[in-house]
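Run: sequence + NAP -> complex structure.
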Amino acid sequence: MTAQIKPDFDVIAVGAGFAGLYLLHRLRGLGFSAKVLESADDVGGTWYWNRYPGARCDIQSIDYSYSFDPELETEWQWSERYATQPEILRYLEHVAHKHDLRRDIQFSTRVEVAKWDADASLWHIRSEAGEEFSCRFYVMASGCLSQPKAPEIEGTDRFHGEVYYTSSWPHEGVDFSGKRVAVIGTGSSGIQSIPLIAEQAQALTVFQRTANYSIPAHNGPMPTEKLAQLEGDRALYREAARWSRAGVPIEPNEEGAMQVSAEERQRRYEAMWGAGELLGIAGAFSDLLVDPVSNETLCEFVRDKIRATVQDQATAELLCPRGHFIGTKRPCLDSNYYQTYNLPHVRLVDLREHPISSITEQGIDTSDETFEFDAIVYATGFDAMTGAIVAVDIVGRDDLSLADKWANGPQTYLGLMTVGFPNFFTITGPGSPSVLSNMTVSIEQHVEWIGDCLSYLSSNGLDVIEPTETAEAGWLQHVNDCADITLYPRADSWYMGANVPGKPRVFLPYVGGVDTYRGACDEVVSRDYLGFRLQGPGKQQCNDGVVRRIQPDVALVLEFIDSLALPPMESLSVDDARAFSIAMAAERPAGPEIGEIIDKVLPGPVGELCYRLYRPDTPGPHPIVAYFHGGGWVLGGADSDDPFCRDLCAQSDSIVVSINYRHAPEDKFPAAPNDGFAAVQWIADNAGMLGGIPGQLAVAGWSAGANIAAVVSQMARDGGGPGIVGQLLLNPVTDCDLTRQSYIDNADGFVLTTALMQWFWDHYADSADRVDPRASPLRASDLSNLPPALVVTSEFDPLCDEGIAYAEAMSNAGVSVRHISARGQIHTSLTAVGVVLSGAPVRKEMGAALLEFFGTAPPSEL
Ligand code: FAD
Ligand code: NAP
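>> structure
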């Protein structure tokens, strides 16, 4: 129900930094009345407050600037690659002046309370001074790094000398000449200010709790090459930035760090060191933020640079970061930071070894020393991303307080809105790329999205918008899925809220990339504001749903496959399809190292069958897993499933024997299950010779191979052995009925298509044979007394429903069955070892299930 009471403003925004300024300009242009409330006495936000010596941007100024005003782009010339705080502030003042923004900004006004009025469908805002405003839409453009964090050090108010916070530096500047100065904190603010404070101070002592990775900025005049790139075609350059990973147009590197030689790695790292660009660090190789081994190579490179720069090796070692991967805390960009420690009057104190016990009247006491200072500088950081938002008492529907809702971590839809708080937007809020990107690009995208949204509402007679719970939960899941495949969650960073005692430990920004994120936001709009409930007098609309359900790395694989524009496999001849699948398999990472791999033959029912044996590198004998590869009974072989078999071997500490059964159409049904059964009998009889433990035999398979594993289990039950202790069925084919819902929902677009499955069946078995339980094990009249099973199905797999049906049918027949439904995975992704990292937890569970079949693992839910 919405009412038409006219508020003071269509929109009130909090904050007059990059975000608030552009929002005001944009909303005006769209015909909305808007007011910005700002606690400072002028514009600038970050660049108004952080006036400490050395404050600069760490994204090149060409990129760290607005793109919405083409005139501004040409009339403003940056003097340096990385502009100083005064220059960036002048730029924002210029923008405010040029677009006459100050007339709608009320300065020196701190917003304290914002309350949703459901009857009137508007927000009531109250300032610290008690002034009240109302608006239809309320936007927190309050900044991700604008709420300073308390230093949390005993005795901070005791000190009699001068006290400075980098986050609210005096406008008149500070002269440290002749003074004994302490700096606490070695994040970006500390690292930028320390060299300049050292230039003035009589003595400087730096108190470091965590050493940070920093690379030299090599600041200087605007780089001509980059300028030429921009000036060559500004629109193109800006558009490329909008669709880049981090908001700066840089070609992503596809190679992993360990895929090149040590010399090549060193060469690239040297180039990165020389280039002086933060985004160049993560971009040196594709896997630096996901692979610990790759990341460590860069960590060590930077440590070597520190050792080579800092003369005193004890100090150098203290400055070498340890305990977090490079990039997982925001790395710094510096000018002469490490060199500063070569100055005789600069000293580093390691707070890990000797923590601060108290600030005193004269200075600082650590656990083993008393220091006297004339000035203390706190560079101790911010309550990032959520701090400024929850500092306002924001109350939504049904008196829900935002601080309460977010007590265990922020929940948002797209980092833009949150359930329970209609018409309330955040700019670069938690769950958006925000601080992991060039913020100006992300700010512009949010401002434009919000502007377009308000225009849509207004032109459709709607005036209230709120996300749905489904959409919000889905987005949160996606944000976490993206983070979980990276190294970020392992660090105690402000990205994780770990710098503020008591703050919930959750990954705050969206790491999926600016491009992916923009795509999701655009898709939401194009699907009638998917996941939002929109209301107006007498009308409402809601297309509920989740915008990103596929695992992020699976989505990348699908994108890559799409980019190849391949013909459908079912349109190929069998030979071409086989050649293609061999070529694709050759491109994959090899899988983990294991003890031994042997190719041999075993006697099949009509001739020899090749098998490949994978032996763990632990002392034997081991249990044995008889494994059947996927490929629709037509494609595949030992090579096709090699990385997965290695992984299974390593995870289950078992011998894996991958059997190359005969393929259709040359050898149609029932050649494959007959081969499978014969092979399993032979393996059981020869377990000792293979290095296995007699009686410790499980079967496993993927897709058509899981079909064979399931059938062999039935044949062994009915044929008097051999004994099988468990069956691992990954995305199994269990039935020839291709009309189940998952064949319709996932018919196309997820690699294995319904049409391809039809093609496989047509090659494998004549129509009459397909209902035979040796082809469709789900159709067996008796499913009791089968070995315990782990059935794994993938959400976006045409075969999903028949796998579930088989798990249920076995369970109903009294078999011990565990079913894992792999969220966001496709038919081919769980076997993509080293490519689809989001599949790793499921692969681990498969290994654990095998161990449990063999009685070598602690019991779980099985
Ligand atoms: P801010 O600039 O933080 O502005 C928010 C404003 O909201 C502030 O002025 C604040 O006073 C006001 N406000 C907050 N709460 C209230 C309230 N309750 N009532 C009234 N007013 C309120 N990002 C990059 O991409 N590249 C960089 O190089 C870079 N360098 C940085 C350097 C420093 C020192 C810091 C701290 C951050 C840096 N950032 C950088 C991040 C930077 O914050 C953003 O790039 C950008 O400036 C944010 O703009 P904003 O308008 O969203 O927020
Ligand atoms: P920060 O990165 O959070 O660094 C704060 C520093 O203070 C850390 O070294 C922290 O140690 C230390 N610290 C905090 N509390 C402490 C305590 N009680 N005792 C001892 N040490 C304590 O904050 P920041 O340097 O202000 O930077 C925040 C972010 O703003 C940056 O990551 C960046 O995104 C942005 N920024 C950018 C630039 C730029 O170059 N353009 C400059 C400044 C800021 P621990 O690590 O152990 O917690």
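>> summary
Residues 14-20, 37-40, 45-46, 48, 50, 55, 57-59, 64, 110-111, 141-146, 189, 388, 391-392, 427-428, 438-439, 443 surround flavin-adenine dinucleotide (ligand 1) (CB under 6 Å). The longest strand covers residues 692-702.
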